[in-house]
Design a protein that fits this description.
Outer membrane efflux proteins (OEP); two-stranded parallel sheet; 442 residues; alpha+beta; 65% helix
Length: 442
Amino acid sequence: MKNKLIIFFSLLVSITAISQENNQSFSLEDAINFALENNRTAKNAGRDIEAAKKQKWETTATGLPQLNATVDYQNWLKQQVSLADFDGDGTNEAFAFGLKHSLDASATLSQLLFDGSYIVGLQSAKVYLEISKHAKIKTDLEVRKAVVNAYGNVLLTEESVAILERNKITLQKNLDEITQIYENGLEEEESVEQLKITLSSINSNLNNSIRLKKVAYQMLNINLGIDIESKTVLTDNLETLAAKNMDLSFINNPFSVENTIDYKIAKNDKTSKELLLKLEKAKNLPTLSTFLSGGYIAYSDDFDLFQNKTKYYGYGLFGVNLSVPIFSSGGTKAKTQRARINFEKAKDDLTETEQRLKLEIASAKSDYQFAIEEYSNKKENLNLAERIEKKNQTKFFEGIASSFDLRQAQTQLYTAQQEFLQAMLNVINNKVALETITNQED
């Protein structure tokens, strides 16, 4: 019996440990940090930076010394012959040059001395790495925004379900009481029907909110980079987060458009288009390279090339190669002109981005300030709606107010409850929207 109890408690502890391991708890800050490391889009953006670093070295390596080795073995299955008149009598005789087997082992060292395209390529590789880094920052900001929005939506649905369940309990109690009064002949049937209509609406909204809660958790899990069905527990609450994110002084920060990530990305695009223009121009310049080659070659009528008696003959070669573009039927000129057009477009795009960002920042500031103002307004409206509903409920059971008056007060309360929840969420979402546009992470 003692052994059975030990086994039972051991299994219980194991099951509890597994359950705790499967349930992951997150504050909002924990969720953001977790997503920046595990979100699949964020991870791929990090891989893009590593790929850009490799490409930068790949481009650099093309201008460094290159060493290649080759081994060439040939076996004439049937040797090629030539004809010659050795005796001068007009009769040609067939003969073969060379031996049946040959083996040639050589190595070539080459070095690029000058190439305008290579110089531009080095600059482009550096810009490409910078583009990848800025893309990573942009991705992280968007992931952060998505996590905040998803986290807030989960809290909103949680609060909605809790409020609707409390409303349902209160309504069911009221319906039970008014039904009993009606059965005793002291109330009209319409009063019962009015409460049934309200209760039916509450049940419908509650069921919908429960479904939305599941979807909201799944959306959060996707943004976190974990399995969609994982059990996630949130440790923050909506009202605390809303209060934490109310900061009117943040609106007065002197945000600089040049510091936003969208502006930097547009500037990268302009720089890359300028380098492409330089590249097309550089193709009109000559290229200069040098090489040093050497090796050993052996011949034999039999396949004995690897025996000690086989004689190998050494050779060496040094050379310089100069390539000068002369005429391309206007193709190079057309490419240069097209690159110039794209560069001009990129300059206008940068100006357009700057103007657009100024407008977006101003709009985000306004939305955030309005969200804070609406929070105070909706909170006050909720307090008023609660008092009105409570008074009408008292009046209704005292026979002073009608069932229509009570239903109207209840509907007004339920609307005020949802509006206050949405107002809290708007504060959080509009704050992170302003932070994302202005490239503010704290």
